[in-house]
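The methods section describes the discrete structure representation at length, but only in general terms. Each protein is reduced to its one-letter sequence and a matching series of backbone shape codes. I believe one specimen quoted in the main text would settle the matter. An entry of this sort, consisting of the sequence and the corresponding backbone structure tokens, reads as follows.
***
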Amino acid sequence: MKTFTHKHLLVATGISLVALLGSTVYAADAVPAAPGAGAARAGGAPRGAGSVGGAAAPLNIENLTTLKLTDIQVAQISPLLDAINQAQQGLAPLQAAATQARADAQTKINAILTEVQRPLLAQVFTPAGGRGAGGQGGGGAAPPVRIEPLADAVEVELTPPLDKEQGNFKHKPKTTWRDVKDIVVPDGIPRGKVIAFSAPPTLAAAAAPVATPGYAVAGGRGGRGGGSRACWVYIPAGYKEGDVLPFMVDHDGRADAVVQVQLIAAMDILIAAKKIPMMAGVFIAPVSRSPEYDTVSGVYADYIEKIVLPLAETTGSLKLSQDPDARGAIGQSSGSPAAFGMAWFHTPAFNRIISYSGSWTQLQKSATAPKGAQEYQESLIPNTAKKPIRIWIQVGSDDLNNQFGDWRIQNNAFANALKAKGYAYQYLWSEGAGHVEGGVERQTMLEAVEWVWKTYKTK
């Protein structure tokens, strides 16, 4: 059983007292928050009692004058305040260390999580009680800040029009995004088949003299297997062995992921309607997600080219095109810079890109990219000759905003950089949508895939 000392009781009593008294006894900016421990409160609002992100200012009886305390109350409360101040002085170094350790751990956990799990991290680090309201507020996402869509965004009902080669758009759900139904392949439309396979997790693992036979993937749904990488290949209905196929690579592959399930359904429907070419799909799970996806380089694309695509060809008994115009990639969150890196750095390039809630932010900094993927819109796109890239991008009005950046601001900036350089792009702002909103993916996948492949010519 844990023993509570007199000091513990005094601190607990004082915190309860401060919580009741509110911001009058806490300085708004007494101690700066540790890096990554939480966002500044709008307008310099005071931190709540017990906030992890900051320390309390000394408590004095003069702070309580507005309560019109009686002499007896002053005599009773003053010793308590003195005891609390002494205890706080001893706790402050521990609090600062705990706050920094918390922030460091959250950053590392964030890099490991999937795109579905990552938005929930803030809820784990922000227990009920709330930020700035007496709860343990440090480490969560910033308080809601309204960011507007680009001024020239055109309102659309469901999706941007297919005939617009460049433009900014905005839409909202008819009811809620959760109500948007899955894409369903109608009866009578031939279905492609999907085959799971596994790959060595890195180029170094593939080059090892002794490899785990088959690289068996742990877990039923696939994902981060121990010493392996889960992958899937989609073979379109009617494919004739020996034909060379256009294809798309999907990052964050997982058998039950919304983007994977909906992309496969969209390809079945659009191929049957001859709105896109007969094409394959390769779905790849992450192993070390953020370092692989958010690093601004062609390293991960090289791994996919040399290791995953040959295995996909062998598994599916098919041939994948080497023509950059017949190659595409789709990503969500950190998967978006992974996809765009395949277009920007790799040869042969992947010229057709789809991005949902793209992480054009500072998740992985390096000497060559000091601002991480934010370098794309700030320097790489503006300062590089236009490439033959065709890209469809989306962000939610309630997307992420944390110590790595504001996803809404950076997606706006990314679209502006594309527009200024004359790229073929569509940028969709989804009102009321959070990070990687499944309803948005379900509503827009058919249009996004058809639009990015609209200009493809069979060679």
User: Anything to note?
Assistant: The longest strand covers residues 193-199. Residues 154-453 form a domain with the Rossmann fold fold (CATH 3.40.50.1820). Confidence is low (pLDDT under 50) at residues 1-56, 123-143, 210-226. DSSP finds eleven helices and 14 strands in the chain.
